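Possible regression after last week's pipeline update?

I re-ran a chain I had predicted before the update to compare outputs. Posting the input and the new output here so someone can diff against the archived version. Not blocking, just want to make sure nothing changed silently.
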Amino acid sequence: MFRLIIAGRGIIAGAALAIAAAAAPVVSAPAPGQTAAPAAAVPVEPARVLATHPHDSSAFTQGLFFADGALFESTGQHGESVVREVDLVTGKAKREVRLDPRYFGEGSTSWGDTIVSLTWKHGKGFRWDRKTLRKIGEFSYSGEGWGLTQDGKSLILSDGTPELRFLDPTSFAEQRRITVTYQGRPIRRLNELEYVRGEILANIWHQDLIVRIDPASGVIIGVIDLRDLAAAVPVTDPEAVLNGIAYDDKSGKLYVTGKNWPSLYEIALPGR
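New output (post-update):
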């Protein structure tokens, strides 16, 4: 672990945000007589809540996304994992499909008229017809499955490491990967993902923040601080953490929630 100190109240005065970093050293000592160059400042801004909506507090949220203006969610836990369409106004499921109890559901996203969803440790993903929620295919991948989003060309998968994999949406073959870094240091535990206006937004497991990632380089170019929002959520389970980012490109609205949170929050887009 290392401590990310955000100086000045560009957003957070003297705040220390703990981010899980890769264990191996990533910054070498300067040569004798040389001075290490200062790291470039990364903008940090607090989440500004614009509206609050109900959310199913029994939902262990792992994936959250909009498709054609409709909200979808995938949840985890063995025997409780589902993929479903959610009513934004009531927070209730309009329809859902349950995964086989052996699978622990993870992230999900849309692709065309389908939904693609992951499982945690089984190396297996599923493709669902978005209109009927009927399973229409399966695929395999190496490692764990955590978060999933897409940029219109590729599926983008997180697996708990500092790397994000870009996959072919048809064959699921890996196209490329990036290492996500903050001021040169790899950042692990990247969880739920959402592609928003040319950036990848990512939750970091057990951190009340969202990082904004350049999809070309993997460099973190900004941070959204949700500590105040998360502190006000009435949950006591330590695993009821911030997880869930959904951008509705039809309305231009951004939403966040957490595992077993009773509310879904519309927050201001970063930089606005």
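Follow-up from reviewer: compared with the archived run. The chain has one domain: 44-267. Marking as no regression found.
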